[in-house]
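FORM 12-B: Structure-to-Sequence Request
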């Protein structure tokens, strides 16, 4: 079983010609609402691919909260422990350019209620879990509490360090899998992304006692670093991206699904590349995430 502890947001998507720079005003060509949030997205991605997933998070007592819960449930995520709170559901405001790039601002609202007390009330769930997925859209003290519980119950920790606004490198020390994109990793390490080399990544992994570091590289694929094997670059198929919102979350959900099934790590990375590749060719986040059949069909076409 996989526990996802994290954010549940309603995405307000603004389709624009290009992402505005500071001080610039642009006109939206289209506005739409989609269910999202990094935690919820990762939960949906894993559940749609066949994993048993429990979501821990909060939504508001409003129409958006009902829609967010419905989206999770329709994808097969167990939501009985998601708490409704007397505030507005959290929202993310996403500018999406014609190239498929995006820029995101999140209003935390209900996500702030994912507190230590809430986790403590549901800590019994960790006794049966094998993996726990964490991100940075909930309070830092809650993240620390979850990490402690995972170590108590011997649950493997998958950490996605995004967003980085309150990041403390001590959070990731000793995690089993750290899955950042190259920009996030460069910020964590205090280096420019174009100057990062494999030696830097391996040194960082060893210094922080991380089990496996998986760096996502967008349209290029991903790189895998660990303490045993040589660095592996997993190339992905070139795609015609329509909307990259949720691509990283889809990758992570697919990757964890595969490793939870004890698949080899290179299989998991290829499986995740395919899943996120399918997702970017459709608009939205959760509603565009692929099924197990879609991913396996393409995997067999390319690797059988």
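FORM 12-B RESPONSE
SEQUENCE OUT:
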């Amino acid at each position: 079983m996989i526990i996802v502890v994290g954010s549940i947001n309603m995405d307000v998507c603004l389709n624009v010609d290009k992402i505005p720079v500071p001080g610039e005003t642009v006109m939206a060509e289209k506005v739409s609402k989609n269910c999202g949030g990094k935690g919820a997205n990762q939960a949906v991605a894993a559940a749609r691919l066949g994993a048993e997933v429990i979501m821990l998070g909060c939504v508001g007592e409003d129409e958006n909260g009902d829609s967010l819960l419905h989206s999770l449930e329709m994808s097969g995520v167990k939501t009985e422990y998601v708490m409704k709170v007397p505030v507005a559901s959290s929202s993310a405001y996403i500018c999406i350019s014609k190239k498929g790039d995006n820029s995101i601002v999140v209003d935390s609202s209900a996500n702030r209620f994912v507190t230590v007390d809430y986790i403590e009330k549901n800590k019994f769930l960790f006794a049966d879990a094998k993996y726990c997925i964490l991100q940075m859209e909930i309070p830092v003290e809650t993240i620390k509490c979850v990490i402690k519980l995972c170590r108590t119950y011997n649950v493997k920790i998958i950490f996605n360090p995004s967003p980085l606004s309150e990041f403390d490198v001590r959070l990731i020390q000793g995690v089993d899998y750290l899955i950042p994109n190259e920009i996030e990793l460069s910020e964590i390490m205090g280096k420019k992304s174009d100057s990062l080399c494999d030696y830097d990544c391996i040194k960082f992994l060893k210094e922080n006692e991380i089990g496996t570091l998986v760096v996502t590289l967008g349209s290029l694929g991903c790189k895998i670093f660990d303490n045993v094997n040589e660095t592996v670059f997993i190339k992905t198929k070139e795609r015609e991206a329509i909307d990259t919102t949720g691509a990283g979350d889809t990758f992570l959900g697919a990757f964890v699904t595969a490793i939870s099934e004890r698949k080899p790590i290179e299989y998991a990375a290829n499986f995740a590349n395919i899943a996120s590749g399918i997702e970017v060719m459709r608009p939205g986040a959760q509603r565009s995430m692929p099924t197990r059949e879609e991913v396996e069909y393409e995997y067999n076409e390319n690797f059988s």
